[in-house]
From TrEMBL:
<dbReference type="InterPro" id="IPR001647">
    <property type="entry name" value="HTH_TetR"/>
</dbReference>
<dbReference type="InterPro" id="IPR009057">
    <property type="entry name" value="Homeodomain-like_sf"/>
</dbReference>
<dbReference type="InterPro" id="IPR050109">
    <property type="entry name" value="HTH-type_TetR-like_transc_reg"/>
</dbReference>
<feature type="DNA-binding region" description="H-T-H motif">
    <location>
        <begin position="30"/>
        <end position="49"/>
    </location>
</feature>
<dbReference type="Pfam" id="PF00440">
    <property type="entry name" value="TetR_N"/>
</dbReference>
<feature type="domain" description="HTH tetR-type">
    <location>
        <begin position="7"/>
        <end position="67"/>
    </location>
</feature>
<protein>
    <submittedName>
        <fullName>AcrR family transcriptional regulator</fullName>
    </submittedName>
</protein>
<dbReference type="GO" id="GO:0003700">
    <property type="term" value="F:DNA-binding transcription factor activity"/>
</dbReference>
<keyword id="KW-0238">DNA-binding</keyword>
<dbReference type="GO" id="GO:0000976">
    <property type="term" value="F:transcription cis-regulatory region binding"/>
</dbReference>
Length: 182
C-alpha cells in the first residue's frame, strides 16, 4: 500500500473524524479513537492535531471551508431577487450533507480558545453574507452584519431541528429565507 503524503493523510484523518462525529457525536471523537478507526498509529494522529481541541478545531475549520465555498458558489449565479433563497438553500444543503457540523459546533462551546476561533470563523461567514446582501439592503453595514449574525444563530437552531427530523428541508429553507428577507 502506498504511503500517503502528510496533507493526504491529514485529509483522510479529517474525513474519518467527520464520519465518527456523524455516527457517534462529537463526544466520541478522541485522538485515540481516531487513530483506531483510521487504522494508523497514535503518534500519527498526535503529530497532525496535537490535542483533542486541535482535532475539533481542524475539523470545524474544514467543514466551515466547505460550507463557505458552497455558499460562495451559489451566490455567484444568484439573481438579485433570489439572494435570501440561495443563501438559505445553500445553508441547509450543507446542514444535510454535513450533519456533524452542528454537533461539532456545540462541542466547541465552553472552551474559551475553541469558542474564540469559532467566532472568528463565524465572522468570516457573516462578512460573506453581509457583502452579498449589502447591495440589496438599505441598512447600514454594521446593522446588516449584526442581523446576519442573528440570522446565523437562527439558522443553527433550525439546522438542529432539521438534523433531528423535526422539520423538513423545505420548511427549514423557507423559514431561514424569510428571516434573511426581513
Amino acid at each position: 500500500m502506498a504511503r500517503l503524503s502528510k496533507q493526504a493523510r491529514r485529509e483522510q484523518l479529517l474525513d474519518v473524524a467527520a464520519e465518527l462525529v456523524r455516527g457517534k457525536g462529537a463526544d466520541a471523537l478522541t485522538l485515540v479513537t481516531l487513530a483506531e478507526v483510521a487504522g494508523v498509529s497514535r503518534p500519527i494522529v498526535y503529530d497532525h492535531f496535537g490535542t483533542r481541541s486541535g482535532l475539533l478545531l481542524a475539523l470545524y475549520r474544514e467543514l466551515d471551508e466547505r460550507h463557505r465555498a458552497a455558499l460562495t458558489d451559489a451566490l455567484r449565479t444568484a439573481e438579485p431577487g433570489t439572494i435570501a433563497d440561495v443563501m438559505s438553500t445553500a445553508y441547509f444543503a450543507c446542514a444535510i450533507d454535513m450533519p456533524e457540523f452542528t454537533s461539532l459546533s456545540a462541542a466547541l462551546k465552553g472552551d474559551p480558545e475553541l469558542e474564540a476561533m469559532q467566532h472568528e470563523l463565524l465572522a468570516g461567514y457573516v462578512t460573506l453574507m453581509a457583502d452579498a446582501l449589502a447591495p440589496h439592503s438599505p441598512l447600514p453595514k454594521n446593522v446588516l452584519r449584526l442581523r446576519c449574525r442573528g440570522v446565523l444563530g437562527a439558522a443553527e437552531a433550525i439546522a438542529i431541528e432539521l438534523t433531528h427530523d423535526r422539520t423538513t428541508a423545505a420548511e427549514a429553507t423557507a423559514a431561514l429565507a424569510a428571516l434573511i428577507r426581513d
